[in-house]
Design a protein that fits this description.
Helix content is about 65%, strand content about 0%. With about 70 residues, the protein is mostly helical.
Length: about 70
């Protein structure tokens, strides 16, 4: 999935998967990570909502950790 994210059709496919399984935490998590890694703001929105559900998810928390300068 992530290798195709530069293409509009890949992003649309992820959004469609989200529509089909809106209550599936694992699906939403995988989509949030893939979109975030591709630089899509929608991924960070999803990740933030998932952290509200599970604040102990270290991989999602790392997305919002301060980055060192330089």
């Amino acid at each position: 999935i992530e290798s195709e994210l530069g293409r509009p059709s890949a992003t649309a496919s992820l959004e469609r998967a989200l529509e089909l399984a809106p209550e599936n935490y694992d699906t939403r998590r995988r989509i949030a990570l893939a979109l975030t890694r591709a630089g899509a703001a929608r991924g960070r929105e999803l990740a933030r909502a998932l952290l509200d559900e599970n604040p102990f998810d270290e991989e999602l928390r790392a997305l919002f950790a301060p980055r060192p300068l330089g």
